[in-house]
Design brief:
With 144 residues, the chain is of the alpha+beta class. Helix content is 33%, strand content 24%.
């Protein structure tokens, strides 16, 4: 059976993660996982349908579109955060303080203890119209 591959879909929205370039590999992976979990819980339209293999074993749904991962300097991250706020785009953040906490309640307390302009950001996830997210990410580069 020679089925033709479906045409690629070009989404009018974008899911992006921006990581600070000086993170260790384990930190990059951990921060990315935490950040995207926030988007999926608050923006149901980003989640696709559940999966099922040929034997009928069900699997959880995932994002319906790719998640693009970028990196940049601390200054790039700070600027992207400000642009995300000014555009009121859905966002999740990860600060350096969260590497020293052990659970969700402590994470929220750590973020709440710091003013917006003083947050030591190491990661930011954003979702929105493609052009708005592109503007937020100005100065960032695709993660290698």
């Amino acid at each position: 059976m020679n089925a033709e591959a479906p045409a690629p879909v070009r989404f009018d929205t974008k899911i992006a993660v921006l990581l600070r370039e000086d993170l260790e590999t384990w930190q990059r992976l951990n921060v990315t996982a935490f950040l995207v979990s926030g988007l999926g819980t608050q923006i149901p339209e980003v989640i696709g349908e559940p999966y099922e293999d040929a034997d009928g074993v069900p699997y959880l749904p995932m994002f319906r579109q790719p998640v693009l991962v970028f990196e940049g300097t601390k200054e790039t991250l700070t600027a992207a955060h400000a642009r995300t706020l000014s555009r009121a785009l859905p966002r999740a953040l990860f600060t350096s303080d969260l590497f020293g906490t052990g659970h969700d309640g402590a994470n929220r307390a750590a973020v709440r203890a710091v003013g917006t302009d003083e947050l030591d950001l190491v990661g930011l996830a954003v979702y929105g119209p493609r052009n708005a997210v592109d503007k937020v990410l100005k100065g960032a580069r695709m993660h290698p």
